[in-house]
Amino acid sequence: MMANRSDSATGPMMCCGVDLSEVCSPQTFKALGDANRLSILSFLAATPGGARVGDVASCCPVDLSVVSRHLAVLRDAGVIECVKRGREVFCSVRVPQLVAMLRQLADALEASETVAPAESDGGRAERAPHVSEPSRAEPRSEQP
Question: How high is the pLDDT of residue 25?
């Protein structure tokens, strides 16, 4: 359920020739941008076959009604699916769809790293240095 968004005022969200709005909607980032929703996603990912809504509520320090709203945001973004079985609603992570979307986003971003500044902006902008892992200095031994 990812929205194909391209505002006429701002134009498509392009990255190295890829319209990012076709890869990942802002709604998806909103869904993944909340600590409680990430806890819910983690709980569901660790629960094979999904979990009942009531069980999901145990992973967050909020009321069941708030958990239900968080689940609705995740569902509407296409991150999880909810299925009614009898009187219970079971939710599970849409792993293949979520992985595919994140992989496409990562591929588009990696592809943008290979485009030289002269190709992408006529050489006007200076590229930010690539962030690498900090060096690990040897610990100093203390002398008395």
Answer: 79
d(CA 48, CA 34): 23
CA dihedral of 97, 102, 105, 111, whole degrees rounded to 10? -110
3 state SS of 89: strand
Q: 64-122, pLDDT tens digit by residue?
A: 999 999 999 999 999 999 999 999 999 999 999 999 988 988 888 887 776 655 555 55
- Walk me through the domains of the chain, giving residue ranges and CATH numbers: 22-96 (1.10.10.10)
Residues 6 or more apart from 97 whose CB is under 8 A from it? 78
pLDDT of residue 24: 74
Q: How far is CA 52 from CA 45, 74, 82, 122, in A?
A: 13, 15, 9, 54
Closest to 25 (Cα-Cα) out of 88, 63, 58, 74: 74
In the predicted model, what is the mean pLDDT of residues 52-59? 91
Residue with tokens 């590229």: 127
Residue 58 has pLDDT above 60, yes or no: yes
